[in-house]
Amino acid sequence: MSAVAEPLTAGVGICLDPAALSTLLEPDCAAAVWQREMSVDVQSWLASLPADSLPRGRVVAPVQTVGTIIEQLFEMAGAPRGIERDWLTADIVELAELFAEVVSAKYLRVRLDVITTNACRRFHVDAITARLVCTYRGTGTQYGVCEGEGDPARIETVATGAPILLRGTRWPAGEAPKVLHRSPPIEGTGEIRLVLVLDPVAVPDELDVYDAQSLANIGTLN
């Protein structure tokens, strides 16, 4: 049974279970956060890996091929096999399926980034319909409601391992509060972040679609 931790406040739904992420479809909702705790064992395993052993890449693919993509990215990075890697792969598949259901997408742009700088450090709204962001290693995405110009007066940080769904400027309908987000500023701290980003793709170009037999169509891996 779906539930929300508290009533929708300032356009952000805080969800206790994955089914409640559909709150993003409510007219006055601009973002939804699945408030969950990530396994300490998985966090410790990821923290132990050097940056070049973390999976990275981007590809447009049918939802049902996401598991194959992630497994091959792990292999390309040389990440050790084990229950932690299996958990992470399964979790990304689950998030892809959940997100695709919420936004009614058959194809997703799947991106895994390894971030060590101040990527997207300015508060903004993406020029897309919607996006899922989940930080598996390091500090999570920061967000806040903006009632005028400038940055939000109050900034929230999504917990590591907790996904946030965000509406973009191309969301088809509805007026919701303006929820801005950014990557946390980490440059110079030595922090390494592993971030999953999912975007819906309506009608992908045939040449962009992932071929389950190879990774030839995956983009930049660094």
Could you characterize the architecture of this molecule?
InterPro entries: DUF1826. This is DUF1826 domain-containing protein. It comes from Cognatiyoonia sediminum. It holds the Pfam family DUF1826. The protein is of the alpha+beta class and 222 residues long. The protein has one domain (6-206): Sandwich (Jelly Rolls). Helices cover 19% and strands 24% of the residues. The chain is built from three helices and ten strands, in the order E-E-H-E-H-H-E-E-E-E-E-E-E. It has helices spanning 40-48, 66-77, 83-103; strands at residues 12-15, 31-34, 57-62, 107-115, 130-137, 142-145, 156-157, 164-167, 179-182, 193-201. The strands form two sheets. The protein has a seven-stranded mixed sheet. A three-stranded antiparallel sheet has the order 7-6-9, with no helix packed on it. It is globular and about 45 Å long. The mean pLDDT is 86.
Descriptors:
alpha+beta; Jelly Rolls; seven-stranded mixed sheet; three-stranded antiparallel sheet; 3 helices; 10 strands
Q: Which regions contain 5 or more consecutive residues with pLDDT less than 50?
A: none
The side-by-side strand order for the widest beta sheet comes to 1-2-8-5-10-4-3
How many DSSP H or I helices?
3
Order of helical and strand elements: EEHEHHEEEEEEE
In the CATH hierarchy, what is the architecture at level 2? Sandwich
Instruction: Please give the CATH class.
Output: Mainly Beta
Mean pLDDT figure: 86
Rg over alpha carbons: 17 Å
Could you give the distance between the termini?
Answer: 41 Å
Category by helix and strand content = alpha+beta
Percent strand: 15-25%
- According to CATH, the fold-level topology is Jelly Rolls
What general outline do the C-alpha atoms trace?
A: globular
What percent of the residues sit in helical stretches (DSSP H or I)? 10-25%
How many domains? The number is 1
Largest sheet: 7 strands, mixed
Tally of extended strands?
10
